[in-house]
Amino acid sequence: MKFAVAIDGPAAAGKGTVSKAVARHFGFAHLDTGLLYRAVGQGVLRGDDPVSVAQSLDPKQFDEAALRTPQVAQAASRVATMADVRTALLDFQRNFAAQDGGAVLDGRDIGTVILPDAQVKLFVTASAEVRAERRYLELAGKGMDVTRAGVLADVKARDDRDSSRATAPLVAAVDAVRIDTSALTIDAAVAQAIAVIEKAKRR
């Protein structure tokens, strides 16, 4: 059975947590497409060519902890504006989504570009202030030297880059179901997502 769930949204909105929970609930494969861009960004920080890195990625080799630093996140946001990088990653993502047993992909352009025909499209969002506070607590909890004002500025700058880029900007698909997590617990957000998917599976 092929069943694709596309989950998009801005940084720190909770889409990754929702996506993983949904995948576990339904037994679907899960791909955090942001890690692909983080890996390319990490390569650029090492001085590598972004397109060459994108063409040779192996997610099985990813060091997720190393990919989730603020520096790599900013580099990922920059390489994500490069059309050649996005093209290089397109087939990989679509092939992942087409596997038997169902798949959940989360990112910025899944429902609009990667999987425009996905059976379910969700757009998980929250206010910039709420997202920045979540990210600040996450990074501070890891011992990183960050400030609330600095993290908020980074979140807003990333939002601007993601939504204003010429290629595949961050935008909700017209047929996506929006889940605003600003005032929701994770359990409540996951329950909303599961309900939408259950309804689609019954069609």
Assembly type of the chains comes to single chain
How far apart are the first and last residues' alpha carbons, in Å? 14 Å
CATH superfamily: P-loop containing nucleotide triphosphate hydrolases
Biggest sheet strand line-up: 2-3-1-4-5
| CATH architecture level-2 label | 3-Layer(aba) Sandwich
Describe the structure in your own words.
By secondary structure, the protein is of the alpha/beta class. It has one domain (4-201): P-loop containing nucleotide triphosphate hydrolases (Rossmann fold), CATH 3.40.50. The protein has ten helices and five strands; from the N terminus they run βαβαααααβαβααβα. It has a five-stranded parallel sheet with strand order 2-3-1-4-5, sandwiched between helices. The relative contact order is 0.22.
Features:
alpha/beta, 203 residues, Rossmann fold, 5-stranded parallel β-sheet, single chain, 12% strand, 5 strands, 10 helices
Topology:
Layout: E1 4-8, H1 15-26, E2 29-32, H2 33-45, H3 50-55, H4 64-67, H5 70-79, H6 83-97, E3 103-107, H7 110-114, E4 120-125, H8 128-141, H9 148-164, E5 177-180, H10 186-201
Parallel strand pairs: 1-3, 1-4, 2-3, 4-5
Helix pairs in contact: 1-10, 2-5, 8-9
In short:
The protein has 203 residues and is α/β, with parallel strands linked by helices.
